[in-house]
Design brief:
The chain is of the alpha/beta class. The chain is built from 36 helices and 32 strands. The two termini are about 70 Å apart. The site of magnesium ion has 5 residues, from loops.
């Protein structure tokens, strides 16, 4: 096509395998016009016609008049079409009839669509009847009057319904003639002018109406919601009519080359015999499955299959097509990329890559992390009912939950039953560490307070459960066993439904539509490809062996954060840690620690067994000790109760001691108190116990023939001296342990380990070079780093963050997506400094941001070795990491099978084998010199 002339012309013709445009000209021809041109070029059966460009529309909207040269072009195009079709517009015998359809560069359902049968008038109706039959001719005229009246003249549809009601029913022909008459009267009455008998006037008015529809309310509204530019304009396609209503050998249909809801590779289409397109759209008649076409017109059916497969192969994407069969002859009227469900996107992308239609890289790019989120989370099934939520909060963890209300953790456990057979929604003002057992028993959480990184939210995402936080208007009364939600009062045991993707709360027991499980074979395959092309490895945060099991199942390449204290919170262990905290002498503390050691060791052994050959990062004790004790109020109350009963003196003494210790440990700002590495420096015996437990566990599984790769992480460091002190302690503890005689035989006496730090205090980020020289790895704890850099409390910031976001003071919640300018620049400079000071250092991210697609892209830019996120977020993170890697370093299709985490080095040979069990990030950089190089 001579596109050089594009600037000076407004009309592009297509017909009989030749077209003056092509599929790439969507901007100029609209989606419909471009696809018709492209299909014509492919030699597919498309009725001849021409497209008036979007430029003509823009000219019309700006100047209020048609471009001066358009009239001449239109005449010439009409003359050409009349020759092609051997028919004449307005001709008295067998007249040329036209369809006039709108088509912007993106599909806009809010715009006017189609006027069919343009060209009929009182004079040629008999000629048309001669060609086919009288009923067909009259019915076509009736349709033209109705469409022209409602679309061009904007006479409401119901006016036509009323007009046709008064028509007598004496014979089809007579009643059609009467309908036509009454429609003509209606048009004249409503518009003040008779229906135009001149076919050229019909066409001109139809074109103007399409142009003007660009600015109708629905179209404007649609553009506003979809953020589509206001100035694009629409094209108009004028085409020779083909008729699906010629009789039983005719019909019309719509379809998809693959199933749009499941993605299955099977043509999915519906067909209506003896009908025109608008009959399907209007839902006047129920279409039949395409199998019916196969039965009645096998030849047409086969051709449709061939033609649509060809379309899909040509466009390399699932197509949504419209077709008409006229007297046994197939015509294509439109094709476009099909809108499809997340599940269908996933399946069709994977299958198309396997068919060789697209590359694996393209398949990866066709699915977004939020598609996966949708695929993986169960959803509320509203059926056809519009339900009003009774409360709305922050969608803190996606998915949906339906269950019975419980107001305390204990009640949740009780109501859930021994085997968690009853689904429970835990409703709290807010949750804390004491609620863990109840959260474990529940299927979803609803809190009145808290933001997207509150305790409830973080735990929910970790557990892969649905959670809504900060839902205002919720008041719980645990004593009465009631909760007020707005005007509703619910009792414990009442049903509640949560939509974690939107934050909406519904009363009652809605049905849950289960998601495709993590075992969806297409998901498994796509994520395998994702990991294979990622330059950034994805690890998981896992606190318990169960978490690690899930992480391993989802192919995490390591554990980036195991919070040991979460193991302490389990009921049977809390007693040990309490006696350690309450110990009155160093000896008593040693004894308490000695009883904790085997418990911790057993947990670590399980972790190592679950992640053989993969790094497991264990963070030393982090939270302030008082978190393991009851609150002062609770301690006081318990003491008062005991005194009231008054007999057990020993018990009273114990409770007095407990209260005293609680008071001693209380801090006015515990977040900045005696915690993290400070705790280890003040109480080194805790660190010694933990390091011994970690290394003994590693040695034990080594004796079983399993390779354990322990990484010991020191939390909340601020200065290099803290790091030096604790590293010395850790290494000395290891050396002492390895020197012990009674370990697992000569062979099993040593094991390699790494020592690293968590960077979560801005000072540590500023001194990253000094610190990097002392450690083997560093991992950015971006939650605390964000909290401390902004000076925003993670647990309370939601109180002002909403206002900040509304006012645009912040563009997004920095606890969800990393703040690139502030926190991000700290990390950027810390990474640079650390790598300069210690080129072998391994750098990771272990905050909540490690599972956020936008943040992952940023971390990948900085060149971190891995990001670590909760197991439930692994699929999304793996896909995000792949997308980022593809965008940063386009990998050729045969290079897609790069082992996990391997940095692409120029000239390096790329393995085509299965990804190795041991990730290269572990193999490629050796630990720094010192006792850690033991192996
Ligand atoms: Mg922290």
């Amino acid at each position: 096509m001579d596109r050089k002339r594009a600037g000076s012309r407004y009309i592009y013709r297509f017909g009989h395998a030749q077209a003056e445009g092509d599929g790439s000209m969507g901007e100029e021809l609209g989606g419909k016009g471009a696809s018709l041109a492209e299909m014509t070029r492919l030699g597919l059966p498309v009725p001849a016609g021409f497209t008036i460009s979007t430029r003509a529309c823009r000219f019309y909207l700006e100047q209020g008049a048609m471009p001066p040269s358009l009239e001449e072009e239109l005449e010439s195009a009409l003359g050409w079409l009349e020759l092609e079709q051997a028919q004449r517009l307005g001709g008295e015998r067998d007249p040329l009839l036209l369809s006039v359809r709108s088509g912007a560069s993106i599909s806009m359902p809010g715009m006017m669509d189609t006027i069919l049968n343009v060209g009929i008038n009182d004079t040629n109706i008999d000629g048309l009847a001669v060609k086919q039959n009288v009923t067909f001719a009259l019915d076509s005229y009736r349709r033209l009057l109705q469409m022209f009246g409602s679309v061009v003249l904007q006479i409401p549809k119901h006016a036509f319904d009323q007009a046709s009601e008064g028509v007598s029913r004496d014979g089809e022909e007579a009643s059609l003639r009467q309908t036509i008459l009454s429609f003509q009267q209606l048009i004249e009455h409503r518009s003040g002018k008779p229906f135009p008998m001149d076919p050229r006037a019909q066409l001109r008015q139809a074109v103007v109406a399409v142009f003007e529809s660009w600015n109708n309310d629905r179209a404007r509204h649609y553009r506003r919601i979809h953020r589509t530019p206001e100035n694009g304009g629409t094209a108009v396609t004028v085409q020779a009519m083909v008729f699906g209503n010629y009789g039983v050998n005719s019909g019309t249909g719509v379809g998809f080359t693959r199933n749009p809801s499941t993605g299955e590779k099977a043509m999915f289409a519906e067909f209506l015999a003896n009908a025109q397109g608008e009959d399907i759209v209007a839902g006047i008649r129920t279409p039949m499955p395409i199998a019916e076409l196969e039965r009645t017109m096998p030849r047409v059916y086969r051709k449709l299959r061939t033609v649509t497969s060809r379309l899909e192969a040509h466009y390399r994407d699932v197509q949504d097509f419209e077709f008409t069969v006229q007297n046994g002859e197939l015509f294509l009227l439109q094709t476009r990329a099909a809108k499809r469900s997340a599940l269908a996107k996933l399946r069709s992308a994977v299958e198309m890559a396997e068919e060789g239609l697209i590359s694996r890289t393209e398949a990866l790019l066709r699915v977004t992390p939020s598609d996966l989120e949708e695929v993986l989370s169960p959803q509320l099934d509203f059926g056809n009912v519009e339900l009003q939520p009774i409360a709305k909060g922050l969608p803190a963890s996606p998915g949906s939950a339906v269950g019975q209300v419980a107001l305390t953790a204990d009640r949740a456990v009780e109501l859930a039953g021994k085997h968690k057979q009853s689904p429970i929604i835990l409703v709290r003002q807010e949750t804390n560490a004491d609620d863990i057992h109840g959260m474990d028993a529940a299927v979803g959480f609803l809190t009145a307070h808290g933001g997207a990184t509150s305790h409830a939210a973080v735990v929910a995402r970790g557990m892969g459960k649905c959670c809504i936080t900060g839902a205002g208007g919720i008041v719980t009364d645990e004593v009465a066993g009631e909760v007020r939600i707005g005007e509703h009062t619910l009792k414990e045991g009442d049903w509640l439904s949560l939509d974690g993707s939107t934050g909406r709360v519904f009363p009652g027991q809605l049905t849950l539509r289960p998601s495709e499980s993590f075992d969806n074979p297409f998901l498994t395959k796509l994520l395998y490809w994702a990991r294979a092309c990622s330059l950034t490895a994805v690890w998981a945060n896992a606190d318990t062996p169960q978490d690690a099991e899930r992480a391993s199942h989802a192919s995490a390449m390591g554990i980036g954060l195991c919070r040991t204290e979460h193991m302490f919170f389990a009921k049977d262990r809390l007693a040990h840690i309490r006696s350690m905290i309450l110990a009155s002498s160093p000896a008593a503390r040693e004894r308490a620690l000695a009883s904790l050691l085997p418990v911790q060791q057993a947990d670590f052994e399980e972790l190592f067994r679950t992640m053989p050959g993969l790094p497991v990062t264990i963070r030393l004790i982090d939270p302030p000790l008082h978190e393991f004790l009851p609150t002062e109020v609770a301690a006081r109350e318990e003491l008062a109760q005991a005194r009231l009963q008054g007999t057990d003196v020993e018990n009273i003494q114990r409770l007095e001691e407990l209260l005293l210790r609680v008071q001693q440990l209380s801090e006015s700002n515990p977040m900045m108190g005696l915690r993290g590495c400070r705790l280890g420096i003040v109480h080194p015996e805790i660190i010694v116990m933990q390091v011994r437990a970690i290394l003994r566990a590693a040695l034990r599984v080594k004796a079983e023939g399993i390779l354990a790769l322990p990484e010991i992480m020191v939390p909340l460091v601020a200065c290099v001296e803290e790091v030096r002190f604790l590293r010395k302690l850790i290494d000395a503890t290891a050396a002492n342990l390895f020197a012990e005689e009674d370990l697992f035989g000569q062979e099993g006496r040593r094991i390699g380990y790494r020592v690293g730090v968590m960077i979560e205090v801005p000072r540590a980020a500023a001194c990253a070079d000094e610190i990097a020289r002392e450690v083997d790895f560093m991992s950015f704890g971006t939650n605390d780093l964000t909290q401390l850099t902004f000076g925003f409390s993670r647990d309370d910031a939601h109180k002002y963050l909403d206002t900040y976001l509304e006012l645009g003071i912040l563009k997004h919640n920095p606890f969800v997506t990393i703040d690139r300018e502030g926190v991000g620049s700290l990390i950027r400079s810390a990474v640079r400094k650390a790598r300069e000071a210690n080129p072998d250092i391994k750098i990771g991210i272990c905050g909540e941001h490690g599972g956020d697609p936008a943040s992952i892209a940023f971390f990948a830019e900085l060149g971190v070795d891995y990001v670590s996120c909760s197991p439930a977020r692994l699929p999304m993170a793996q896909l995000s990491a792949a997308h980022t890697s593809i965008a940063r370093a386009p990998v050729k299709s045969q290079q897609e099978k790069v082992p996990h985490g391997l940095r692409l080095v120029e000239g390096a040979s790329l393995s085509h084998d299965l990804p190795s069990q041991i990730p290269s990030v572990f193999r490629s950089s050796s630990p720094s010199a010192g006792p850690t190089s033991l192996a």
